[in-house]
Design a protein that fits this description.
This protein has 278 residues and is of the alpha+beta class. Helix 5 crosses helix 7. The longest helix is centred in the last third of the chain and has 15 residues, at 257-271. Helix content is 26%, strand content 30%. The protein has helices at residues 21-25, 43-56, 65-76, 148-155, 201-212, 225-229, 257-271, and strands at 2-4, 8-10, 30-36, 39-40, 83-95, 100-113, 124-127, 162-166, 172-175, 179-184, 187-191, 217-220, 232-237, 241-244, 247-248, 252-253. It is built from seven helices and 16 strands. The protein starts with a strand and ends in a 7-residue tail after the last helix. The strands form three sheets. Strands 2-1-6-5-3-4 form a six-stranded antiparallel sheet. The protein is globular.
């Protein structure tokens, strides 16, 4: 694995100070990226989304996208297969229990081999008892390490692949690391951004894939009851693309025909979308 802190270093060359402000007081925006066939996927989308998260906390990425991309490509070229990439912005400034005034930040890039072995057994999901934090309190597109709603929900998932979270008015939102789609009568439905979800980059591509195949896609408010009446449910996230779901809450079982079909088509589709590779 490689870690970039102004230069590429090995894991054993890195030390973490006990005085690290982000560890003591939080406020670390992050993004998770990956490669497909050693090509950086959706780098510009992730950079822009990281910029939004940073702006909420009074920070900005300390370089333009061209430099950001060039550094990541240097790291990718050190590996002989696909990689997973974690980007962190560590705050610097007047940061304590009494003040949060970042005047600078440090970009850290953590890179390791992408490990996506086949999923064994059923893909199970549960409906979480933990609600998403209201968008007025914590914006849905603030992607920051240690979000309490995400951590609490994730701590209760047990053997489930992920848990699905509802919003403050009972609407279906998303998983702790996934976006969610339901299929009913060959129509695909997914919560819209106004529902209080992170604008997933894989989600965006899956919507495009469906439309390219003539499949009707609705982005709208989704009631949790629709999960139980759905023909299929599938999840999307960076590491695996599309993950068809077998079972909800230990009893509701689904077909996986359309989800499996879309999963097989996904890489072919993204390959031909130029903006994914800039």
């Amino acid at each position: 694995m490689l870690i970039w802190k102004g230069q590429w270093l090995k894991k054993h060359d890195i030390t973490l100070s006990i005085d690290e402000p982000g560890v003591l007081y939080g406020g670390i925006p992050y993004e998770t990226l990956r490669t497909y066939q050693k090509r950086l996927f959706a780098g510009k989308f992730h950079y822009d989304r990281l910029s939004i998260s940073a702006s909420y906390l009074g920070m900005k990425i300390p370089m333009n996208y061209e430099c950001f991309r060039e550094i990541i490509l240097q790291g990718i070229n050190s590996f002989d297969s696909d990689v997973s990439i974690r980007i962190l912005l560590l705050p610097r400034g007047e940061i304590s229990a009494f003040r949060y005034e970042p005047y600078d930040n440090e970009l850290v890039i953590y890179m390791d081999y992408l490990r996506t072995s086949p999923i064994e057994g059923k893909v199970k999901v549960k409906l979480s008892k933990v609600r998403k934090i209201d968008n007025c309190a914590t914006p849905a597109d603030l992607k920051v390490v240690g979000r309490t709603d995400i951590l609490l929900a994730k701590s209760m998932k047990g053997d489930a692949y992920d848990v699905l979270m509802l919003g403050n008015r009972g609407q279906l939102c998303e998983g702790t690391f996934t976006n969610v789609f339901i299929v009913k009568d060959n129509h695909v439905v997914t919560p819209d951004l106004d529902s209080g979800i992170l604008p997933g980059i894989t989600r965006k591509n899956v919507i495009g894939l469906c439309k390219s195949l003539g499949i009707i896609v609705e982005e709208r408010w989704v009631e949790p009851s629709e999960l139980y009446g759905a023909d299929e449910v599938f999840l999307t996230h960076t590491s695996r693309g599309i993950v068809p779901v077998d079972e909800l809450d230990g009893w509701r079982e689904y077909s996986k025909s359309l989800g499996s079909f879309l999963s097989k088509k996904f890489e072919e589709y993204i390959e031909n979308i130029e903006e994914n590779w800039i």
